[in-house]
Structure formats: structure tokens, C-alpha cells
Amino acid sequence: MSTAPKAKASSRLRRVLGMIALVAAAEAVFLLPFVLPRVFRPTMLEVFDISNTELGMAFSAYGTVALFAYILGGPLADRFPARKLMTVALLSTAVLGIPLLGGPVSFRALSLLYAGWGLTTILLFWAALIRATREWGEADPGFAFGMLDGARGLLAAVTASVSVAAFALLLPDDPELATVAEKAAALRGVTVGYVVMVACTAVIVWFCLGERAPDGRSESPAAVGFRDVPQVLRMPRVWLQAGIVVCAYVAFKGSDDFGLMARDGFGMDDVEAASVGTLSFWIRPVAALTAGWVADRVAGNKVVLVCFASLAVGDFAVWSGLLPAGPAWSLYVAVAGTSVFIYALRGVYFALFDEAGVPVALTGTAAGVVSFVGYTPDIFFGPLMGVLTDSAEGMLGHQRLFGVLALFALLGVACTLMFGKLTAAAAQAEAVSSGSRSS
Q1: Cβ neighbours of residue 257 closer than 8 Å, sequence gap 6 or more
Q2: Range with lowest mean pLDDT among 43-57, 114-128, 135-149, 206-220
Q3: Fewest CB atoms less than 10 Å from the CB: which of 38, 187, 210, 367?
């Protein structure tokens, strides 16, 4: 009896398990630094006795450390297997979450924790994840990255919904009557679950992600490293891709405001505000998967262009005051519509490496360079968001924030148009060169 069918089935199973590990890791590693404040931001501000601006400064500490971790982590991902790098990253991220289990921490301690997470989630993790995903996708990068972010979104939606339900159960029957101590205890219960989830995901990655070194062999590292950074820096489309990521990431960071806007502009309580933030998580799977599928059949830069143009229109609508600050349905429509294009962007922008002409062997290094520039909003956007939302009561501060988001969306349109123009010119030059060689 031929062993070919068994080998094929085994290979398919390894691929499925590999993507499961990538998805679980990609979401779990950011639960503590980002998902917790995104879903429970109003509660965190009250329990930790910090302002929105101070929380933004903690995010800035993360972004400052991460900025250098991106550029250093890229070559590491091109030299060592993702399985080892990602497992260590997850375990260290979980360990850094342990101080939160003792109760609220000071602003200074929170800033130190975020600086530490900047190392654990980026230096050892991020570029390794991007490279492993591109290798998994092979000929269909759009599908691979769409699958990664879409499935992450589904996992995030389930996690966020369960978290909100658990949070509500840990509070008194009427959340509005809960004391600060009761809210702190409920938040601590959710945090315990997050720490355990991150640690368990490290085990999943270790056993399910294949021991595949970046050059495709089973043991020795690839012969690439920091010397390849200049080669990547000389690629104009890589810089434009970085600009696209900057603008898309600003839009994503802006989604942190959904819950706070629900409370300040629509008078919702903490549980209701958390449910508004959770809505965007449910949009993510469909948006990212659809965008990835379309990108493989049209062009990634065209999908990105449509998303930025749509975001610009929606953000300007909120900034101008067209969003009624009364009926809850208007908020849900705005959150759902904005989330579609935010998560479509996230499902596609790293799939642009093929269009940018980046060799597979340099994926980790290119991911480091793009991320070094692209995730600079981790440094400046948190404080900026805090200042804008704290600058006025009610909806006005949030409208000012959405005005800034609209400007970044327009900048994203400009970067995408230039990226598409250079990609078309490169394709034409390649066609001419191929014709000359064939003749």
C-alpha cells in the first residue's frame, strides 16, 4: 500500500496545526498590553487611578522600546526558527503580566511593564511571525495574511466576549453601583485568565509549529543577518509600504477609543462600553479574510486604496458631527463600518511584500524595517489620543481625534497611489527585460 496518501494527509495536518499555532500566538501575545485596555479602558483608568493621557504615555514606553526591537528582531527572524523565538516571547510576556495579578499598579510600574512588553512581543516575536506566515502562504500571501488576521479576529472576538461576560459576572448585579474595589477585583479576574492563556499558547506553539528554520532546512540558521538591512533600505516600495502601515496602524489604534466614546458621548456604563469595543472584534474575521482573498485575485495595493479612501470619508463624518450623539444604533453603525476597513487593511498590508519585490529570504529583515517605521504610532499616538480626548468633555474630544484619523487616512491614500505606480513600473520593466531575454 502506498504511503503517499498518508504523507499527504500528514503534511496537510502539519499545515493546519501550524496556522492554528500562528493564529493563537499572534493574538495571545498582545492580550495583556493591548486587548485588556482596548476592551476595559474605562475600568482600567478608574481602577489604576490614571488619566487617559497617562495610559497613552505607558503605550509610548512600549512603542519606544519596540521601535528598536523591530529593527533588531528582523535579522533574528531570518536566522533562527520561529518556534523557538515565539515560545520564549510568549512565556516572558506572561511572566510580565504577573504583577497585575496583585491588583492595580502605579503609573510608573505600568510604564515599566509596557517597556518590558515592547521587548518580549517584538524583539523575539513579531518578525518571526511575519516570516513564518509568508512561508506558510507561499503562492497565496494575501490568503495567508488574511487567514492570520481573520482567524486572530475570531479568536479575539471570542476572547473579548468571554472576558466581558466574566467581568460582568464578577461585578454586582447593577454595574453602575460597583465600587472601585469591586471593579478592581473583577478586572484582576480577567487578567488572571489572560496570563494563563498566554502561557498555554506558548505550549501550543512549541508542540504544533514545525521546527523549520528560515532557510527551509531543519536545523542550521539561514546565512542572512544585519548585513542585509542596507539592501532592504534601498527598496523604495518598502518605504512606501512602511508608510501604508503607519497610516493603517493609526486607524487601528484609533479603535481603542470606541469604548471610551461610548461612555463619554453616549452615556453607557462600563459593561455596555466594553461590549461596543467587542463589536469590532467580530467584524475582524470576515473583513480580514475577505480582503486577503480579494488581494490575491486583484492586487493588494488596490484593496488598501479602497480601505483608506473609505476610512477617510467615515472619519471625516464623525469629526464633522454627523454622528448623532444620542441613539446607540448610530454608534454601533459607525464602529462596525470603521472596523470593516481597519481590519481589511490589517489583513493585507504585510501581504504587499511580493508586490514590493522583497525576496522571501529577506522577509524577516524587511518586516523589521517596515515595522520599525510602520509602528511608530505606538510612540506618539497614545499620548496624542489621550490629549485630544481629555481636551473636552462629551463627544467633542473624540471628534477631534477622528479629525486626526481622517488626515492619516488621506496620507494612506497618497502612499498607496505611489506604491501602486512604482509596482506597475517595475512589472513593466520586468516584462520588457523578459522579452529581451527570450528574443
Answers
A1: 385, 389, 398, 401
A2: 206-220
A3: 210
**Distance from C-alpha of 117 to C-alpha of 109, rounded to nearest angstrom:** 12
For residue 368, CA distances in Å to 68, 350, 377, 397 come to: 9, 11, 15, 34
Domain ranges of the chain: 13-427
Judge whether 344 and 290 are in contact, CB under 8 Å. yes
For residues 354 and 299, is the Cβ–Cβ distance under 8 A? no
Q: Which CATH architecture has domain 13-427?
A: Up-down Bundle (1.20)
Residue owning grid cell 504577573:
98
Cell numbers standing for residue 147: 487567514
- Whether residue 343 contacts residue 288, with contact meaning beta carbons closer than 8 Å, is answered with yes
Cα atoms in the Cβ-side hemisphere of radius 13 Å centred on 436: 6
**How do residues 34-61 score in pLDDT, each as one tens digit?**
888 878 888 888 888 888 788 888 888 8
CB 412 within 8 A of CB 308: yes
* Residue 369 in grid coordinates: 524595517
d(C-alpha 202, C-alpha 166), whole Å: 23
Distances in Å between the Cα of 102 and the Cα atoms of 97, 182, 204 are: 10, 14, 27
| Alpha-helical runs (H) found in 320-395 | 328-348, 363-374, 377-390
- Alpha-carbon distances of 238 from 130, 242, 349, 379, rounded to whole Å: 15, 6, 11, 21
**What is the crossing angle of helices 127-137 and 82-97, to 10°?**
140
**In whole angstroms, what is the distance from residue 235 CA to residue 320 CA?**
39
Q: Is 103 left (phi over 0), alpha (psi -120 to 50) or beta?
A: left
Cell digits of residue 387 = 490629549
- Compute the distance between CA of residue 323 and CA of residue 325 in angstroms, rounded to an integer: 6
